[in-house]
Amino acid sequence: MGAGRNGGRGRAGARGGGAVEQPNLVAPADVPSLSARFWVLVVATGVLAGLAGAALMTLLYAVAHLTYSYRSGSFLAAVERAGADRRVVALAVAGVVAGAGWWLLRRWTGPGGSEVSTALWRDEGRLPLRRSLGTAVLSMVIVGMGASLGREAAPRLAGAVLASRLSDWAHLGTAHRRLLAACGAGAGMACVYNVPLGGALLTLEVMLGGLSLRLALPALAASCLATAVSWTVLPTGPTYRLPEVPLSASLLVFALVIGPFAGLVAVGWVRLIRIAHGHRPTGWGLLVAPPLVFTAVGALAVPYPQLLGNGKDIVQLTFGAQFGVATLVALFLLKPLATAGSLGSGASGGLFTPTLATGALLGSLAGQGWALAWPGPAAGFAIIGAAAVLAAAMQAPVAAVVLALELTRTLDALMVPLLFAVTGAVLLSRRLDTPSLYSVRLPAQ
Questions:
Q1: Which pLDDT belongs to residue 111?
Q2: 46/162 Cα distance (integer angstroms)
Q3: What is the domain class of 20-230 according to CATH?
Q4: Residues 278, 443: contact at Cβ < 8 Å?
C-alpha cells in the first residue's frame, strides 16, 4: 500500500519507542475501475465469508458448551457454575491445545504469516490458505474454552483468505486483490457480530484508510451479504441489550471529561499489546508459554470468572451496573493483562471485544464516582467509555461510533455525548503518536 513511502508513519512517542508504521491513517493508492467480474468476486466473497463465519461460530458454541457443560444461558453463568477447579483445568488444556496446535501448524505449513493486517499492508493481500484456516479454527477452539481473546480474529482471517484465494483464481492485480481481501475481512467481522455497516467501515477506515465511493460500495456489499448469509445460523438481534438512556446534562459533561482519559487508557492498552506481541515465543517456546500463561489466567479466574472468554459478558454487566467498585477496579486491571498475556504467549485471537470491555469498565468505574456528584444512567457511562477507548485504540472514530450503534441498536439519544468522548479520546491518542492495535502487530522490517 506504500504507506511508508507516502509518509504514513506515526511515532509511538518519546517514551514508547521508535517509529511505528500506521498504514490505516493513510489512504491507499487509487483502485482502478471495478469490472463486472470483480463484482461477481465481491458477491462470492460475501457469501463465503458469511458461511465461514457461521461455521466458526457454531464451532465456538460447541466447544464452549462441551467445556463447561451447558446448553443455554450466558457463557459467564456456565463458567461460574462449573466451579474453580474446572476453570483452571479448562484453561490449562486450552494452553496445551494452543501451544501444540500452532507449533504443529507452523511446522506443517512452512513459512508465511496469517495476519490480515500484514497481508494487506505488506504482502499485497496474499494469505496462505492452510495456515490461515488452521489458525482461524484453533483461535475459535481456545476462545470457546475460555481464552481471554476476541472471537473476531478467526472470521476476519477466514474471510480475507477466501477472498485472497478467489483473487488468485481470477488473476487480480495488486490493488483489486487488497480491496477484495479487506472486504472479506470486514465481512467476516460483520457477520459474527451482526454489524453490516460497522464491518464495512472497519474495511474502509481500519484496513484501507479511505472512505471513497469506489471503496465503499464493495465493502458494503460484501458485509451485507455475509451478514444475511449468517442469519441462517446466527441470531439476528443486537449483541448487547442496553436499557433506554435519555440524554442528560450529566452525560454530556461526563463525555467531555472522560474522552481524554479514555484516550490515555487506549494508549496504554496499545503499548501493552505491542510489548506482548514483541515477546511472542518461537520454536519450542511455543509449546511451553501458552500452557503456563493460560493456567495462570485460569487461576485468576477462580476469584474473577469474568476474565474468561472475550469479555462480552463484562460489557453486558457494566450496562446493568452489576459490578461493585472493587470488582470494577480488579477487572479493569486484570482483563487487559490476561488478554495481553494470552496474545504474548503465542496464541492468536482478536482484540475487539477485550478493548470494548476495557472501555466499558473504565466508563462504569468513572461513572460510579461521577454519579455521586451528578447522577446519571450507568449504561450511558459504560457505553460512552467503551466507544471512546475502542475508537482511540483502533484509530477509527467513525467505525467505533457506528459499531456502538449497531451492537446495541438503542443509542440515538446518546449520539452527541458519544461523539464528544470519541473525539477527545482520538485527539489525545494521536497527539501522543499512538498507532492502532493493528499497526503494532505488524512484523518488524
A1: 61
A2: 10
A3: mainly alpha
A4: no
Q: Whats the size of the chain, residue-wise?
A: 445
pLDDT at 113 over 50: yes
Angle ∠(329,441,222) on CA atoms, nearest 5: 100
Give residue 401's Cα distance to chain centre.
15
Fold of 249-431: Clc chloride channel (1.10.3080)
Q: What local confidence, expressed as pLDDT, does residue 8 receive?
A: 37
Q: CA-to-CA distance for 132 and 164, rounded, in angstroms?
A: 11
Q: Tell me the pLDDT tens digit for each residue of 193-220.
A: 999 999 999 999 888 877 778 889 999 9
**180 to each of 31, 426, 434, how far by Cα in Å?**
11, 28, 28
Which grid cell sits at 143?
A: 476462545
pLDDT tops 90 at residue 426:
yes
C-alpha distances out from residue 430 to 268, 393, 416, Å: 13, 10, 21
pTM reported for the whole predicted model = 0.91
Q: Is 52 helix (H, G, I), strand (E, B) or coil?
A: helix
DSSP 8-state secondary structure symbol assigned to residue 444: P
Q: Where are the domains of the chain?
A: 20-230, 249-431
